[in-house]
Amino acid sequence: MKYISNLLLKFEIDPTIAGYLSIIIMILLIAIICVVAHFITRKVVIRVITHIVKNNKFTWDTMLLERRVFHKLSHFVPAIIIYYFASTFPSYQKLIEKGAIAYLIIMGLMVMSSLLNAINDIYQTYDISKVKPIKGYIQVINIIVITLGVVLVIANLVGKSPLVFLSGIGALSAVLMLVFKDSLLGLVAGIQLASNDMVRVGDWIEMPKYGANGDIIDISLNTVKVQNFDKTITMIPSYAMISDSFINWRGMQTSGGRRIKRSLFIDINSISFCTEEMIKKFNTIDYLSDHIIVREREIAEYNTKNDINRSNPVNGRALTNIGVFRAYISNYIQHHPGINQEMSLMVRQLEPTEHGLPLEIYAFSNDIRWAVYESVQADIFDHLFAVAQEFGLRIFQNPSGHDLKTIVDESKREVMKYRD
Question: In total, how many domains does the chain have?
Fold first, then answer.
């Protein structure tokens, strides 16, 4: 500064003006040095680092590059230059140094935030990230770092020790707990979710209270993000996963089978004993011939042993069309290529209702994909609806307009016959 001022005085410039001009020139010189240093850092050093990162076999440094960690580090250079040139301006030295330090702290916070995000990105490249996500913990660390950084910035500007401000945080703990309530609840919930392995990224969950029915795509400190099957996004508070109930379909996905649990409602009035003609007809059905032979032998032995009078079908044991149909369904499902034969499989009667006798199929498909599962289920029931009448059974349904019209038409025909 003195050297520049002496040069200006040699040109016989007023000392006061020379002092101001020397300050302006010095500021311009410092600015030029900062710009040049920043340019070299960004255009030379960063490019060299980028070239090295893109031409090695590691992936973690690519994450650092994508999060612009190195780019943000380049902002340190101008601040350091300004800090060391602060002594050039004695009157404003402390103010300039405080400003430079505050800027360095702020940029340090930005670098730490990017670095933490990069660590999370690196962690997500491993399979364990789906089981034990750390995004929530990263966010907690980020909050702590930012809080400490703000304290350091204020302490630097005020000229007090950071410990003075940290000691005052205890008195503000109630306020902080109120402000960071969701974050604290989310932290506790995140620990419980991770330790108990309750949810993972990729799990299909169902939570009707929040309208969620789809796959988890992200687990953070405060929220669990669910992409529903209609492609909408539902945000669920992390602590709600602990306090409320939800369904996790992971067990179904890992088991290799998806449950089919649906009923046919049989009109009870169509249930009857099997006649000789019906038994002959059933003997020609591939899935029933062996069953009919075995059952007829068992029934005949029982009736003969107990001297049953079969002149009345009520006496003794006999085949029924509903029983034969149930055996047919069981054999049909056991031979169906879309059913998992290693898991539970049964056909059972439920309690009769006003809609008839429910004949429930309980089985598991061998493919958990939604479209395939629905196709297998529809294929089974398409067939059963079509063959029920071959057993003398009627599927129950409430009367439709067509049924009522048929009844009216038949009534009219009966009236016309009566008149004739």
Answer: 3
